[in-house]
Amino acid sequence: MPTPAERRQLLKQMAFTAAAFSTPGLLAEELTRTARQAEGPFYPDKLPLDTDNDLLLLNDSTTPALGQVTHLTGRVLGPSGLPLRNAVVEIWQADNAGTYIHSKSKQERTDKHFQGFGRFLTGSKGEYYFRTIKPSKYVGRAPHIHYAVYVGGKRMLTTQLYVKGDPQNEKDFLFKEAKTPEARASIVTDFKPIPNSQAGEHAAHWEIVLGKTPEDREKR
Questions:
Q1: What value, to the nearest 5°, has the Cα angle with vertex 166 and ends 108 and 30?
Q2: How far apart are CA 199 and CA 64, in angstroms?
Q3: In whole angstroms, what is the distance from residue 99 CA to residue 113 CA?
Q4: What CATH number has the domain bearing residue 50?
Q5: Is the CB of residue 86 less than 8 Å from the CB of residue 127?
Q6: What gap in Å lies between CA 183 and CA 32, rounded to an integer?
C-alpha cells in the first residue's frame, strides 16, 4: 500500500495520463470565458487535514468514499488562451448522500471517507487533475461540483461545473443565471465511462477560461 506522500506523487503523474480519456482542449482563438457562479453556502468552514487532489481517500485510510469514481482533468487558460501555470484550483462538492463537509450540512449522513474538498497547483500547460466522484443528486439542485481558481493569491473565478445533458440543469436556479447558450456551455461537460474500466470509472475534462481581474465573491 503506498504511503500518503507516494500516493500524492502518483496522482500528480496521473494528471498527465488521465487526459488520454478526455476530449481535446479548446482552440486558442475566440475563447468564451467561463461563466461565474455563486460560491454557495457550503464552502468548508473548517478545511480537512487532507486537502490533496484525491477526494476518495482521507490521509492514510484504505477505505474509499462511496460514489462513481471520476478522473476530472482540465486546463486553466487566460483570456487569450494561454495556459496559466501555478494557478490554484479548488473543488468542493457533496458526498454521495448529498452532504458537504460543513457544520450546517446534514452531518448525520456524511460519508466519513469522502474528503469533500481538494486543491491542485497547475503545471506548465495549465493542467489540473482530481480523483473524485461523479456529482450525485442533491436536494433542490442539479448535480454539480464547485470550483474556485486563484492566480497570484487572488481569487479570479468562482463557478460550478454541471453534468452535460442532465435533465435537472434546466430547472436549477443557479444554472439558469447563465443566460446565453455560450455561458451555459461554458459550465457543463460530459462525464463519460472509461472504456474497459472494471470499476466503472468515469472521466471528465473541463477547460476553464479566466478573465483579467479578480472577482468580488458572492455567496448564495
A1: 120
A2: 12
A3: 12
A4: 2.60.130.10
A5: no
A6: 8
Model confidence over 61-101: pLDDT tens digits? 789 999 999 999 999 999 999 999 999 999 999 999 999 99
Q: Which residues pair with 202 in a beta bridge?
A: 70, 193
Q: Tell me, yes or no, whether 118 lies in a domain.
A: yes
The parent domain of residue 162 ranges over 4-209
Rounded Cα gap, residues 33 and 137, in angstroms: 27
Helix (H) or strand (E) holding 130: strand 127-133
Q: Which residues does residue 205 pair with via DSSP β-bridges, in sequence order?
A: 73
Amino acid identity of residue 72, one-letter, is: L
Whether 19 and 94 have beta carbons less than 8 Å apart is answered as: no
Model's pTM, two decimal places?
0.86
Q: How far apart are CA 149 and CA 158, in angstroms?
A: 7
In a domain, 216, yes or no: no
